Amino acid sequence: MTSAARTPHLRRSNLALVLDQLRRRGSCSRSQLVAATGLTRSAIAGLVSELETIGLVVETPPAPDGRPGRPSPVVRVDDQCVIALSIEIFVDEIGAAFVALDGSIVASVRAARPRARVAVAETVTDVAGLVDRLEAQLADLEGRRVGHHVIGCGVSIPGLVRDADGVVVAAPNLGWIDVSLAESLSSVLGCGVPVHVGNDADLGALAESRFGAGVGSDHMIFVSGEVGVGGGLVAAGRPVVGHLGFAGEIGHLPVNPDGRRCRCGSIGCWETEVGETALLERAGLDPEGGRAAVDELLDRAAAGDRRATDALAAEARWLAIGIAGLVNVLDPDTVVLGGLFARILPAVRARLDAELDDRRYRAARRDVAVVGAALGSQAVTVGAAELAFGPLLDDPAGVVTLRPSTVSLRSRPARSS
Amino acid sequence: MTSAARTPHLRRSNLALVLDQLRRRGSCSRSQLVAATGLTRSAIAGLVSELETIGLVVETPPAPDGRPGRPSPVVRVDDQCVIALSIEIFVDEIGAAFVALDGSIVASVRAARPRARVAVAETVTDVAGLVDRLEAQLADLEGRRVGHHVIGCGVSIPGLVRDADGVVVAAPNLGWIDVSLAESLSSVLGCGVPVHVGNDADLGALAESRFGAGVGSDHMIFVSGEVGVGGGLVAAGRPVVGHLGFAGEIGHLPVNPDGRRCRCGSIGCWETEVGETALLERAGLDPEGGRAAVDELLDRAAAGDRRATDALAAEARWLAIGIAGLVNVLDPDTVVLGGLFARILPAVRARLDAELDDRRYRAARRDVAVVGAALGSQAVTVGAAELAFGPLLDDPAGVVTLRPSTVSLRSRPARSS
What's phi and psi for A187, nearest 5 deg? Predict the structure, then answer.
């Protein structure tokens, strides 16, 4: 390939560059794009026009600002045209949503489910039913505005997802081993769009990094408290994936080598000491009590209940121990706490800061921001959509072949109801 | 910048691509370069010719292979022309070497030094003297072959080096804080080439990744046993640097939260349990005894001395605990053990493997190679040179302005001896 033959790639990477800038900034003028990208005014004009034709951005005339001269039109990401289907699979709940290219949620549905339905076949059936409801919801919206085009599907899983082929190698809490979920879902949904599968904490990290508490941080650690502990890492602005795609299993840092056996097979992993199960057990509450039990714990602590405050203090101490280690290994500028850890943060802030101060590498004299997630429970929803948008963001002109403006992902039998 | 205006950058990045391929493969034919890079035959011819003009590669006629047709010339990295000055600063020793672009060491000198001379001023003076000796050694070699061109200097430090400006923020074992070492060295050496400073374990990781046990691995962790524990990380083929440049401080993973206070200020860091000090203490030997004491320990263990074998078993156990955690967080394909850990590896292999097996995340069913460093004590020497070669490797045409073929880095007063 000669230099000349590679020039079309340059145009495509410039399209990606402009789209990325618009997503980071919300909306901006062409002049601001010129300043941000170093491309010429005429190059920007051509690229914006191409992105508009594809249906990824819209350009609107500026409001008159009273100053002499012609004000620059405002360009922004189109939140109407291209959308992704985001599917979330948890142990006790499933969710589906349509998310626009600007990260906004267009429509969403969730459903609780009994433990008896966590097997793969039941999960796939239930997800298909949920997507039916989601499409109906979108069809109602469509009545009121322009058609959306679904360009991909991202699925979040509480487990290890192999990067090479998207196989769910293991999801211990679901009892899944070696599941080709993308294939099963594609076939049941009958959809013509690619299905991508990712680990829930990795997806939460991606979303927080692009739209949440990690915006502006190139070196971020996302530490999410769930039943156990999940994590996602960003280094030099990119997700750290690892050899097989399993990076970020921070819940399995060995923090207490003489501690309890972990469900992973090792001993004294971080998640044997922090996370919902560990916290509720220490407080003498039902370790399977979920969110309601955590709320109960926070209420008791606020009322001065000693066992509750002790449990939170222990959680803060072990949380600091793991965070201090991760900071030493990865040197982030920002640590974003998600899930349970974001919920309890106000209650443990003082103790957490004191423990972190006691366990920091003093010589480094660094200032790491430890903050709560900004997107809350929507982080994983948005992250799964980001996974689906991935190929489009890498090559805006190469991916979008606009589907006919119909809502349905598949041919369904007519409903009798 | 339009697409057309960016084309020269393409040529430069293609030069870097070809040079990188040649460094990975040693020597190869133009046809192999065509296959490896996807560039056309004529593009490769032009790029190889340009690299040859700059003095980075040489092309030699092939040996006749008896087959019909004209055999392809062999291209290889020039190990004669461009070299880097590599400087290593340890607590009890300093070293200087000239390293060629293919990673081979052209000349090297080392000197022990008393603890009284670890201050910055004394260190800089002693390094300057050592570089004098190194240049004299090279001058002797020059008599026998073509002139070398020093294009940069890389310095290895046992401490935290800030990425943005190369300042040694802290080197606890040297007692250094906020030292602008590159500036001091540049001024004393009077050299016109850029001076780059890096952390010793990061540089060892870089060298092992490019020329040693990590070749072929895109996700590597380098775990080096010294007085304490140093580390260097490679993810997706690139060094993990972190926000400030401090990533890889794996010696300060908290593995034993109720353990001993660490010199970093925290409690129960990994290096309070493994590394030379911890190992020798457990064996009842002088913890400051250095390499000789480790040899003594290995001899005693080989002879069946119980305290020595127990100390090695404890070292293997704690080593496995930390490695297991790092594997879960970073998902490498290869863990390279350097320094002390490489030396004791044969003696602890069985116990290390058993402990790793007991502490692995079973669901991941992954196969991580845990191997000894291939470059031994030369890893840091070569790594410091790689740091110096960095700008050249990124942009071969942009950096090399060949200096006159003189050996001396600076004007020196004539020596009386």
Answer: -70, -45
Q: Provide the β-strand partners of residue B229.
A: B225
Give A247→chain B minimum CA distance, Å. 5
Token pair 């076949």 is found at: A121
Interior CA angle at A397 toward A392 and A398, to 5°? Answer: 70
Separation of CA A196 from chain center: 13
Q: How far apart are CA A19 and CA A392, in angstroms?
A: 10
Contact A333 B2 (CB under 8 A): no
Closest CA of chain B from A172, distance in Å: 8
pLDDT tens digits along B167-206:
999 998 899 999 999 999 998 887 678 999 999 999 999 9
C-alpha closest to that of B252 among B273, B222, B280: B273
Instruction: Judge: B38–A1 Cβ closer than 8 Å, yes or no.
Output: yes
Token pair 């969730």: residue? A110
Residue A414 has pLDDT above 80, yes or no: no
Q: Which residues of B touch A321 (CB under 8 A)?
A: 254, 257
* Shortest alpha-carbon distance between residue B225 and chain A (Å): 16
pLDDT tens-digit map of B381-390: 999 999 999 9
Q: How far is B329 from chain A (nearest CA, A)?
A: 5
How many Å lie between the alpha carbon of A42 and the closest alpha carbon of chain B? 9
Which of B243, B255, B317 is the mutation pick for testing A, counting most A CBs within 10 A?
Answer: B243
Q: Where do the domains of chain B lie, and which CATH numbers do they carry? A: 4-77 (1.10.10.10), 82-199+384-399 (3.30.420.40), 213-372 (3.30.420.40)
pLDDT of amino acid B66? 67
CA B386 to CA B104: how far, in whole Å?
Answer: 11
| Contact: A363, B172; criterion CB under 8 Å | yes
Tell me whether residues B330 and A245 touch, CB distance under 8 A: no
ipTM tops the 0.90 cut: no
Question: With helix as H, strand as E and coil as C, how does chain B read?
Answer: CCCHHHHHHHHHHHHHHHHHHHHHHCEEEHHHHHHHHCCCHHHHHHHHHHHHHHCCEEEECCCCCCCCCCCCCEEEECCCCEEEEEEEECCCEEEEEEEECCCCEEEEEEEECCHHHCCHHHHHHHHHHHHHHHHHHHHHHHCCCCCCEEEEEEEEECCEECCCCCCEEEECCCCEEEECHHHHHHHHHCCCCCEEEEEHHHHHHHHHHHHCCCCCCCCEEEEEECCCEEEEEEECCEECCCCCCCCCCHHHCECCCCCCECCCCCECEHHHCCCHHHHHHHCCCCCCCHHHHHHHHHHHHHCCCHHHHHHHHHHHHHHHHHHHHHHHHHCCCEEEEEEHHHHHHHHHHHHHHHHHHHHCCHHHCCCCEEEECCCCCHHHHHHHHHHHHHHHHHCHHHHCCCCCCCCCCCCCCCCCC
pLDDT tens digits for A194-237? 999 999 999 999 999 999 999 989 999 999 998 889 999 999 99
Give residue-wise pLDDT tens across range B84-123: 999 999 888 999 999 999 999 999 999 998 877 889 999 9
Do A246 and B331 lie within an 8 Å CB cutoff?
A: yes
Query: Which residues of chain A neighbour B332 with C-beta distances below 8 Å?
Result: 242-243
User: What phi-psi label fits residue A268: left (phi over 0), alpha (psi between -120 and 50 degrees) or beta?
Assistant: left
pLDDT band at B290 (very low <50, low <70, confident <90, very high): confident
Smallest Cβ distance to B253: which of A231, A328, A365? A328
Q: Tell me which chain B residues have a C-beta less than 8 angstroms from the C-beta of A361.
A: 246, 249, 252, 264-266
State the pTM of this model.
Answer: 0.89
In one letter, which amino acid is B57? V
Size of the A and B interface in Cβ pairs below 8 Å: 215
State the pairing for strand pair B27-29/B160-161.
Answer: unpaired
